[in-house]
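Task 17 of the worksheet. Students: predict the tertiary structure of the chain below and write it out as structure tokens. Keep your answer in the requested format; marks are given for formatting as well as content.
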Amino acid sequence: MSTEDFIFEAGLDEAGRGPLAGPVSAACVILPPDFPLDILNDSKKLSEKKREAAEKIIKEKACYGLAFVEHDEIDRINILNASMKAMSLAFDEMMKKLPAWCEAHSLDFDAKKISAIVDGNKCPELPCPVRCEVKGDAKFPCIMAASIIAKTARDRLMLEYDKLYPEYGYAGHKGYPTAAHRKICREKGPSPIQRLSFKY
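Model answer:
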């Protein structure tokens, strides 16, 4: 297949804008022409088991990049800018893999043929045409795939943080502002991965 037949559309999405702790993650995904689209959906609408099963297939078949921006940088530059930075970094990571991925899939690599589509109403600065789509994670398979990669990666990281700081319950709420999370922060003070610019 040549690039004339294949659309190099990179989907981007983030996970973790709302939590009070931990990083924000972002992923960028280009799906191959033979990808099983029926396994995809907005990551929030999939069960954990289905997300992890889809994640495995995405990583096996797609070209993807993943990036994190940590809690302390979120405090410095704000969550919107951190989300944009994470998406830009994820795009860069995807681009590093793309030439070899194209060769493996018998696709003609041409960076000038790449465009990007981002979930939401704000777009990061990327070295290619980019457009925003509100609720894009419910409409576009490449964004659905990015949503799945970003969420599963962040959830997995928060489970590791739960082992380090078990009293904060990160395995349960993943850092989101639940009543229990707010309560423990008020009682014990912020954890080492708390976003101090967020009210808790």
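Marker's comment: The first helix runs from residue 48 to 61. The chain is about 40% helix and 15% strand.
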